[in-house]
Amino acid sequence: MRTFIQRFTYDIAFWLFNLMLNTFFREIKPRGAHKIPKEGPVIFVAAPHVNQFVDPIVLMRECQRRVSFLIAEKSMHQKGIGTFARMLNAIPIIRPQDLAKVGDGFIQYKTSDPLRVVGISTKFTSQLKPRDSIALRGQLVEVVQIISDTELTIKKELTKDEERATYKCVPRIEQEAVYQHVHDELNNRKCITIFPEGGSHDRAEMLPLKAGVTMMALGAMAKYPGLDVKIVPCGLNYFHAHKFRSRAVIEFGNPMTIPAELVEKFKAGGTEKREACSTLLDSIYSALKTVTVNAESYETLMLIQAARRLYKPAHRKLHLSQVVDLNRRFLIGYNFFKDDPKVIELQQKVLAYNQLLKYHGIKDHQVLKTQSNYGLRMLYLLIKRVFILTLLALLAFPGGILNLPVVIVATIISEKKANDALKSSTVKIAGRDVLATWKLLVGLVLIPTFYGFYSFIVFLAILQMDLTLKWKFLVPVATWCLLPFVSYASLRFGEIGNDIFRSIKPTWVTLLDPTGAETLRKNREKLSRDITELINEYGPKVFPDFDANYISRTTAVPSRTTSTSSLSWTTNKLPRIASGFFQQQAIIMNWLDDKTIFNWGRIAEDDAFSFWDFNRSRSGSISETDSRSHSRRSSFSSSSNSSIIEGFKIEGLTSTLDNMLDEKNKDNRMTTRRIFRMDDEYEQDLGNLTVSEPVVI
Length: 697
Description:
Elements (H helix, E strand, L loop, with lengths): L1 H23 E7 L10 E6 L6 H9 L4 E6 L8 H7 L3 E3 L7 E2 L3 E4 L6 E5 L3 H4 L5 E4 L2 E10 L2 E4 L7 E4 L2 E3 L5 H12 L3 E4 L17 H12 L6 E10 L6 E7 L3 E2 L2 H9 L1 H20 L8 H14 L8 H18 L3 H20 L3 H4 L7 H49 L11 H29 L5 H44 L1 H29 L14 E2 L21 H13 L1 H4 L24 H4 L1 H4 L13 E2 L49 E2 L1
Parallel strand pairs: 1-15, 2-13, 2-14, 3-4, 3-13, 16-19
Antiparallel strand pairs: 5-12, 6-7, 6-11, 7-10, 8-9, 8-12, 9-10, 14-15, 14-16, 17-18
């Protein structure tokens, strides 16, 4: 009975969180989900942990397994968060930093005496014990020996001198009970999710990993002989993680197999145990680096993204997972050659180009939409866009007004929580990692509350009318039920309107400053050419699979989901269907899809003057036109059917494209300028497909 209740509460929470994610994010694209073992114990190791409680929800939704995740024990006492954590069978863990207290007095430290700390009015003997730690200006060092109230020794050196610095006393916490709980869960063939960085943050790179995950994996295999625990690295990549209607890519790496010799070393204890944990932790860190983007600073990340935008093919959009993979490879190449004079010179050019974009007030992707040789047509285009924008604004207005109080309150509360988190953390930069979490939690409470309030107002108004008692109750109930649909429709219309609004700026720049627009286009073209040449020159030195002259299209692959509502009908499938009735049904299903209903005003990506392209996605990204057929269903059942969709396998990326491959003509060839081999077939749920070969440490 208890197991049934746990599964039932888990499913309820999962359904609710899935609804919240679909509302908050515009697109979540999984990559590599087919690599996850379908059964057996698995530890999902996820990083970077940049979106607090949203991260485990995204992973829970896309991993195709029931998971329990580790959560800070103090979070279990927060209203709302603790309730949902218990519904999801979360495992609480006491973190030392949550018990940290400000120490009395001040401390002094001299690099000339690197392992000795002297206190001023301190009480080391009563506030600290050996193996506790002191936190000082973002550094955490272990206490080796307490000599007196004003003197102690530490395990490792600090980075700089300190004079009268405040500090925190961080107690050592034994986690044996948590480890035992995790070991038992793994022995029951269940899945555990852990964020080995220890806490959420908003930095551009991963924090150092904690060794707890190695104690869990090796400890379980040592306690239960024959148990084969797999470790699956998960990379969480967000595009503006804290913003409403942003995008995300979650990438799963190859499952790691823990060799028996590490388990034997762990059993031996002492130095060998520490060596085994260190070896496994290094392997986990290396695996995480293959599925994450780690920049040394936010400015470096912005530079890499700018260079990637200038290099990508100009004729089509990249899928989100391709963008993430390209960012990662650009960053690897940049770290190899960042001191090279050519790279430094190109870096300065990219930064100057970004400043030029800021001066004109447009984005890089809008530069190609400035066409100086279509004066009257651009004026007509501007008027038409303003008209459509006005119409969409009117359609979005009702839902916007109804939900405006929720937006205001959620913004205020989330910013307050971000400030509080920033004050209590030594690793956060601006506290952005908690914004999305609190926006979701506030919306979860306030949206149904306000809808109930609006329905009550309708009820009071109905009471004044000469209606039967039945209608006096039915109308308010119908109002409460219809409000979510009104809000969703307004959201989608507003989303399209926002896309059109952003397209007005380059049109305006073209009309008022055609010379400046022409300068922008020429600068972009030259910069794109320089970046491509530099990559083609240095690419082979970093990537052994570099090939500048090849791009191919793969054969069709099965789609992730097979429900009727999300079938992706293609021109290749329809000829195989014998019945004309089903062809008609395919057309009907296509028109009933909300991408069609809400997409009638979308601007085509490749034609600046086309407004009525029904085949564009709501975001203008090719990846989104099929996002429904690749997204996870909100239920745990897997279908035995599969639909066939077309996918691309990028073997190289280029800024020039001579010929587009014709699906019906296999003899057509495509010539490109390529950087490196990058596989990006759509990752599908292939039922009982054997998991790809694991990585052995």
